[in-house]
Amino acid sequence: MTKTHTLTPEQLQANWMPFTCNRQYKADPRLVVGADRMHFTLSDGRQLLDGIAGLWCCNAGHNRPRIVEAIQKQVATLDYSPAFQMGHPLQFELAERLANMVPGDLNKVFFTNSGSESCETALKMAIAYHNARGEGNRTKLIGREKGYHGVNFGGLSVGGMSANRKMFGNLLNGVDHMRHTHGIEANLFSKGIPEHGVELAEDLVRLCELHDPSTIAAVIVEPLAGSAGVLLPPKGYLERLRQICDQHGILLIFDEVITGFGRMGAPFATEYFGIEPDIICTAKGLANGVIPMGAVIVQDKIYDAFMHGPKDMVEFFHGYTFSGNPMACAAAMGTLDTYEEEGLLTRGAELSDYWQDAAHSLADLSLVKDIRNIGLIAGIELHPTPATPSKRVFTAFLKAYEAGLLIRTTGDTIALSPPLIIEKSQIDFAFSTLREIIKSLD
Ligand SMILES: Cc1ncc(COP(=O)(O)O)c(C=O)c1O
């Protein structure tokens, strides 16, 4: 189809695009001009099925009335309120609502503007928490290979995606990584949580022995690693991490930036696995990707540890100009209303069998190396072309775009994580389109 771009090649030059092949893109741009429910509208008028909820964030789909109305009303009432030493009602209401959505003692909420900021905030909180309790020697942070915790220096340091790290020097001191859980032969083509690999959690014991556990502030993991290619935790693995952390007084941080807000078929992975971390990082689906927003949800004990000293002193020297800003809070309230009214936070569970069957229907294709799935998430790993890893899936991305389907690729894996409003006919379209594309790559 002939494209009618609305921008000239010169007009594309000033914008340095994030995580993008800038030269490839600018030679053949993919311009989005509208979105409604499950579809984007492209500049040439074509419709693109959103197979990845924007970037794992538009969980309620696009152009949802509750969210649009909430933002419109808010901007005409209170557009901004200073974040420090001042507050507005909506941020307290939203914090309370979020605290009520997660189990146990996770009752205090600190607002940020992104997943990266949530991770940064959580790591700083962990170190400062131990310091406030008189354990200032607990400063080390443990992440995991292939982990993704955003792009700021703390998150990058505990993260383990080597392509993201290698341009940036030594990163933070006092950080170590557990082994990843990817590539276990016996788990190939598992459906849901894989059986094998619980012993990988013992890697944390090894790091405790190496560093002395009394120097470790926190362990941070994604319950399910999305950005590195849909890597699921082996059965019993997260439970074992929780046990080891408890044994040594180490905080456990779940980075739920992707898994939060219904992606796994439960409101949070915390609930899905029945494990209570000390801190949860959220962002993305919190405000449906409409306005940047994140939130760090912590156990009472963490907040309480800071509430000492003179009452007119700041307790935690951290925060953002836009922490809990009224526009983002309004978007989040509209989002949570939509999730609640439409039962979206558990819709993934209702559709997961259908989704799983559709994903695994690709298993017979010779280029498919593995398929992983849970809730409304699927990862389809392809055999790489030996000389040019990840090239094949990038070609799949371009072909899917031409065929009217937006997918995400990472390494040699195609990831799908559609809005939670997806219909069965759209699931059929996504996987039948992918079947033809993967066949064409052989
Ligand atoms: C688990 C996880 N943590 C953190 C982030 C970073 O979020 P953001 O891009 O909003 O900074 C992401 C983004 O994909 C993520 O998947």
TrEMBL record:
One protein family per Pfam: Aminotran_3
PROSITE patterns: AA_TRANSFER_CLASS_3 (PS00600)
Keywords noted in UniProt: Aminotransferase, Pyridoxal phosphate, Transferase
Gene Ontology biological-process annotations: biotin biosynthetic process
Example GO molecular function: adenosylmethionine-8-amino-7-oxononanoate transaminase activity
Cofactor(s) for this UniProt protein: pyridoxal 5'-phosphate
Family matches, as InterPro entries: Aminotrans_3, Aminotrans_3_PPA_site, PyrdxlP-dep_Trfase, PyrdxlP-dep_Trfase_major, PyrdxlP-dep_Trfase_small
Family assignment from sequence similarity: Belongs to the class-III pyridoxal-phosphate-dependent aminotransferase family.
Name recorded for this polypeptide: Adenosylmethionine-8-amino-7-oxononanoate aminotransferase
Organism: Paraglaciecola arctica BSs20135
